[in-house]
């Protein structure tokens, strides 16, 4: 079993062409919000554009952000703590559109499996892949980044997943090994003061940082089935 690291939409497309299972990592905050929604039993429809989210028929709730700010007229912003504290209808259909994460999920179309991962479910995602549940021997963990640029929080969360995959017997390529080293060596305080963290703080979303950086607190594995992210755990 082999695992690699890739970045952004380009990395997701390449992984899908290579026949790898794709894990989309947007730690601040789409993958974390998706994990919370999955734990609540919601059906999550990830879409790239705000227009598609706004016009999607049959949605119980709409969640969206651009530039980390809630999309006007939507029910929630892309905030895991806001969603965690909300009472959602059982089995609710939630349409989600974010600046980076949902675009990368869309780019992974055609992969044999598309999962979402973050710090909060790193072990759960890696353990399920290692269990053989998805019948793949190659995994690509994709850090979404921010508008085409590196995002240290995504690299670090990807490193947490890759570290666990290595513990479960996966061989890592050189780039994945480097991401694991960065995860192990990078202090959490550096993630709390990077540009993404500062942007959330300015917007009053400091509580999301604590939630997003807590490891293995939401042990679910969202998987794309058709156009819906669901969790069977």
TrEMBL record:
<dbReference type="InterPro" id="IPR005238">
    <property type="entry name" value="ComB-like"/>
</dbReference>
<dbReference type="InterPro" id="IPR036702">
    <property type="entry name" value="ComB-like_sf"/>
</dbReference>
<dbReference type="GO" id="GO:0050532">
    <property type="term" value="F:2-phosphosulfolactate phosphatase activity"/>
</dbReference>
<dbReference type="GO" id="GO:0000287">
    <property type="term" value="F:magnesium ion binding"/>
</dbReference>
<keyword id="KW-0460">Magnesium</keyword>
<comment type="similarity">
    <text>Belongs to the ComB family.</text>
</comment>
<keyword id="KW-0378">Hydrolase</keyword>
<dbReference type="GO" id="GO:0050545">
    <property type="term" value="F:sulfopyruvate decarboxylase activity"/>
</dbReference>
<dbReference type="Pfam" id="PF04029">
    <property type="entry name" value="2-ph_phosp"/>
</dbReference>
<protein>
    <recommendedName>
        <fullName>Probable 2-phosphosulfolactate phosphatase</fullName>
        <ecNumber>3.1.3.71</ecNumber>
    </recommendedName>
</protein>
